[in-house]
Write a structure and sequence with these properties.
mainly alpha; 10 helices; 56% helix; disordered C terminus
Length: 311
């Protein structure tokens, strides 16, 4: 280190180097002793390595988006194939091609559409068919408050998102954390199901009697199996017992009420079971802290700085 003519070090110069290091000792620093900073200042956060959830990194985030897209495509194919069944059954129930396609394009809710043609095919009035389909469609409105914050869309895109908010798009979108993966899952599923459902509805309506009974192909089971595959992971984790109990209770309610109430009502009653449990059950998001008493002093804080704490 350079000194002046009288052998003094310049003012403000750092102290002597530590043996084996390239830095002089400093005070008021935290973290890696090999880094330096002025007392009372913090280092550039862009130069420090972060730990935490690896899903917040770019590569893992991209992988999660790709996984959401793959899931969306598989669900779209399984659900879209069921459109053949609807097209054929709709024509068999007495609707023409234009009416069948109007239901798929505008109503765009498989359960409501099948309920509609079921009432019409059984000789029910148009009012009864609309009321039955409307009961089943209520659930799509309940999905809105859950999906809207994840998408953050406005204007025309919000109207499009409302049209695409169905069981499958909601399930795939909410199966991922809010962010790019959730948005990709929703949009890819919604658009994929819409395109395939309408194209195969058209095919089923045009082929009509040539297909025979569409249910013999098992397409209705394919759609249900795809949806079950989405729901199944929710029965694991730390809330597995509660999730299984709610699922079993919902199934029992639906089965018990099906012979006595109009179509669509059992689904709403089963959903009410889950909603009621959601309000009554504790969230369990925060771990419970151990109780303390005057005779039991609180546990001492661990040594060293905590992540996110000021030095």
């Amino acid at each position: 280190m350079a000194r002046d003519d009288e052998g003094r070090e310049p003012a403000g110069a750092p102290g002597p180097l530590l043996p084996g290091t390239d830095h002089a000792p400093t005070t008021g620093t935290t973290g890696d002793p090999g880094t330096t900073s002025d007392p009372g200042t913090t280092s550039d956060p862009g130069t420090t390595s972060t730990t935490g959830d690896p899903a917040t990194t770019g590569t893992t985030g991209a992988d999660e988006v790709r996984a959401a897209v793959r899931q969306a495509v598989s669900v779209s194919v399984a659900t879209g194939l069921y459109g053949i069944s609807f097209g054929a059954l709709s024509v068999a129930a007495g609707l023409d091609l234009a009416q069948t396609m109007a239901l798929s394009l505008l109503m765009f809710s498989g359960g409501s559409q099948f309920a509609f043609i079921g009432v019409v095919g059984a000789g029910g009035t148009a009012g009864a068919a609309v009321a039955t389909a409307g009961l089943l469609g209520v659930r799509n409105g309940l999905y809105g408050p859950l999906v809207a914050p994840r998408l953050g869309v406005h204007g025309a895109r919000r109207l499009l998102a409302a049209q695409l908010t169905i069981d499958e798009s909601t399930a795939v979108g909410t199966a991922h954390r809010p962010g790019p993966a959730a948005r990709a899952g929703f949009w890819w599923t919604g658009v994929g199901v819409f395109l395939l459902w309408n194209l195969l509805t058209l095919a089923g309506a045009l082929l009509g009697d040539a297909l025979g009974d569409p249910r013999r192909y098992g397409l209705d089971a394919a759609a249900a199996a795809a949806f079950l595959a989405l729901v199944w992971p929710r029965f694991g984790g730390r809330h597995a017992v509660l999730a299984r109990a709610v699922g079993a209770a919902a199934v029992l309610v639906a089965l018990a009420t099906t012979p006595f109430v109009p179509a669509g009502v059992p689904v709403l009653l089963a959903a009410a079971v889950a909603i009621l449990v959601g309000f009554l059950a504790p969230s369990g998001d925060e771990p419970a802290s151990p109780p303390t008493s005057p005779s039991t002093p609180p546990a001492p804080a661990p040594d060293g700085p905590h992540e996110g704490a000021a030095p």
